[in-house]
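Researcher: Please translate sequence to structure tokens.
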Amino acid sequence: MNILEIKRTMLDKGIPTEVMEQFVFPASEEETPEEKVAFAAQMDKLLTKAQICSIMEEQGCGKNAPSNEFMLKFNHKSLQERMETINAMSLFEQPHCRINEDGTLSIFWDNYVESGKYRCVCPIVNEMQKSASVSLTFCGCCSGHVKYHFEHFLGVKLRLVETVSSPISSGGEKYCEHRFEIV
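Model: Translation complete:
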């Protein structure tokens, strides 16, 4: 999560000046995990859910070149076949996906388990105290990450509907899940 990137996205998305003026932005680019969590809490108070989703779906670390090899190898496959291929991969870092009953796409990490609890995939979370309370808005950064990669993997456009759950916001009881509309 990069607060300066979020600020740019907020301006690009037309968040009104009177709302922007209510935010407290960090004094330097060296944002601490605590500043990032506090900023997500400000977003919860000052923005609508639709605004948050629109902003956070543009975020995400690791948005370097997606697996072009995957696209070249599987571009002739159907969406269902691509999903089956992704879900069959046994890479520890690879999230899984499914089509929900309402036609939305869920992308989730159900394979990050430690001592019977789900753990966060976010490197920033690993820098925080285990007892930290974190809003799902903070986890929207991961929503942006998976949106970017899965648009390329699946050959579809996605729109974030919600960040459903995360280990850090549920005390390890729920895995990291992001739900998208296929547009």
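Researcher: Any highlights?
Model: The helical segments are 3-12, 17-20, 33-46, 49-56, 68-74, 79-88, 140-154, 167-170.
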